[in-house]
Write a structure and sequence with these properties.
CATH topology of chain A: Rossmann fold
Strand order of the largest sheet of chain A: 6-7-8-3-9-10
Order of helices and strands of chain A: EEEHEEHEHHHHEHEHEEHH
Strand content of chain A: 25-35%
Oligomer: heterodimer
Radius of gyration of chain B: 19 Å
Helix content of chain A: 25-40%
Strand order of the largest sheet of chain B: 1-2
CATH architecture of chain A: 3-Layer(aba) Sandwich
Shape of chain B: globular
Structural class of chain B: mainly alpha
């Protein structure tokens, strides 16, 4: 197993936002985390990243417990993070944003599969044309590509992606979906938080559905397909 | 050149020199705020501390140049220790705790210098190389003030180079807009904060050394500079170096020409300026950060 989250408990002040959250992601696998707003999906990603500090539980990444590590150490262990709202550095150019993702500021020469700016541009052609532009001037879709490209520059084996299609026009939604499919094919495992059920089910092999702070359903896409009651209860508005 | 013009020019040089010292202090303050979100109330106490360090180095070695090198470094070391062992521990508790801590640090530094050096004004001679006046185009300019302007310009160029031409600078600019995200890209942000805090206090220290021969060294130095430096940062826009530079120069010129033309209003000119700017643009000239 690449990632094994066990019995994670996270609080925001007095509110207990993750109550014994557990999930796994295997090498090269795409796993989706679904559920309505406020159920703790983003907090799960943040707790893995160290951006929210879990009070108890373990986050085993390749056998190493990274729970409670500061974010930069989690990244150095090999996990990449594409946050909700993208969080592009507005005053930096596209190229600079990509350079921010490089660990230690260098391309890993010893690794023939290392991500380079050119390779990111191959996957996200619109970024190439905008390479000199400031982050603030990009469209929502371009920002999303940049956020994904930026984290790929750190050569993660696992990518945590939070709501990549949120706020995008329908055409862009499928474009971003295809790009994630591409990334998946390169062998990077993805843990995806996604509102759009169609996108999630087309990308993921397995899914977790969260209800208030814990997992309500875990299974394969096929298993969820056979359970309209689960979909109705936990997903549909 | 007639006497009146000569006087204007001389006042201009004085104002510019003060403005540039103000910029050195304010640049450190705005850099620390922009990146760490900490309003470092102790900043001008570091500035004053450096003036005392300078006095001490000169007392021991007789060399102003050595003091110019060592005092800001010693000040930066104190700053780094404060960041590493005090601020970092309470960072998680938020702004109010950090603000309160820096107020405490300010009091400790203010009292410590009185314990070690007493309360009287300690004179510091202008280094002999920079004494007197230089004549350019029939005008006499005080060399030391020209030196301050030149030194500040060199520092400004150095800062601009670091910020816009190096990876380190790029990381700092990114952290100014979103430090958590920088952390989530694998960069050791706590160490970066410590480094920036060190550079910020080093800049304050440099300003302290530059001003010491003009104002002498005394505990009230911090108050004298404090209000002006905060106004510069507020009006320039929190976190903006360009804004700090512009407002520092305006502020220096306002104070020197203000004394000349509207001497009774001079002490409040800066406040009027601040009120007008903030009424029109509440985030200051180049401020993006709200609250």
């Amino acid at each position: 197993m690449l990632l094994e989250v066990k019995d994670l408990n996270t609080y925001y002040g007095y509110s207990h936002v993750l109550q014994g959250m557990s999930l796994t992601v295997d090498h090269g696998e795409c796993v989706a985390l679904l559920g309505r707003n406020g159920m703790g999906k983003s907090t799960t990603l943040k707790s893995i990243m160290g951006l929210a500090k879990p009070r108890s539980g373990t986050v085993l990444y390749k056998g190493e417990d990274v729970a409670g590590y500061p974010p930069y150490k989690v990244v150095r262990a090999g996990i990449g993070y594409v946050p909700e709202e993208r969080r592009i550095f507005a005053t930096l150019s596209v190229l600079e944003n990509l350079a921010m993702g490089m660990k230690g500021g260098k391309i890993d020469k010893g690794n023939p599969d290392a991500w380079t700016v050119e390779r990111v541009f191959e996957h996200f052609p619109p970024l190439k044309e905008r390479q000199g532009s400031k982050g603030a001037l990009l469209s929502g879709g371009e920002q999303q590509m940049l956020a994904i490209g930026r984290s790929l520059m750190g050569n993660p084996e696992l990518l945590l992606v939070d709501e990549p299609t949120e706020g995008l026009a329908p055409l862009l939604v499928s474009e971003v979906r295809d790009m994630l499919e591409d990334i998946k094919k390169t062998g990077v495992a993805i843990l995806l938080v996604e509102h759009n059920l169609r996108v999630a089910m087309s990308l993921a092999q397995r899914l977790y559905i969260m209800k208030k702070a814990e997992v309500a359903f875990a299974g394969t896409v096929k298993e969820l397909d056979a359970r309209p009651d689960v979909r109705e209860k936990y997903l549909e508005v | 050149m007639d006497a009146t013009t000569a006087m204007y020019v001389a006042q201009g040089i004085h104002g510019l020199a003060y403005g540039m010292v103000l910029f050195l202090v304010a640049s450190g303050l705005t850099l620390i705020f922009g990146m760490m979100g900490i309003l470092n109330v102790a900043h001008t106490a570091f500035f004053m501390l450096s003036a005392y360090f300078c006095y001490q180095v000169v007392a021991w070695t007789g060399s102003f140049w050595l003091a110019l090198l060592l005092a800001p470094i010693a000040t930066a070391i104190v700053g780094i220790l404060v960041e590493r062992f005090l601020l970092r521990r309470i960072h998680a508790f938020g702004l109010l705790f950090e603000l309160t801590l820096t107020i405490g640090v300010m009091f400790v530094i203010m009292e410590a210098v009185k314990v070690f050096w007493g309360t009287e004004n300690l004179p510091l001679p202008v280094p002999s190389l920079l004494e007197g006046l230089v004549s350019i185009g029939g005008m006499d300019y005080p060399i030391y003030r020209l030196f301050i302007i030149g030194l500040s310009l060199v520092i400004l160029g150095f800062l601009a180079f670091i910020l816009y031409k190096t990876r380190m600078g790029m990381v700092v600019r990114a952290a100014v807009s979103d430090a958590d995200m920088v952390n989530a890209l694998g960069i050791n942000v706590p160490r970066l904060f410590m480094f920036v805090f060190g550079v910020g206090t080093w800049l304050a220290g440099l300003a302290g050394v530059a001003i010491a021969p003009i104002l002498t060294v005394f505990p009230g130095l911090a108050d004298q500079m404090g209000m002006d430096a905060f106004i510069v940062v507020i009006v320039g826009g929190f976190g903006s170096l360009g804004g700090a530079l512009m407002v520092a120069i305006i502020s220096g010129l306002l104070s020197s020409y203000g004394v000349q033309f509207v001497s009774q209003l001079a002490p409040v000119l800066m406040f009027i300026f601040m009120a007008v700017v903030l009424a029109i643009k509440p985030t200051g000239f180049f401020g993006e950060r709200e609250g």
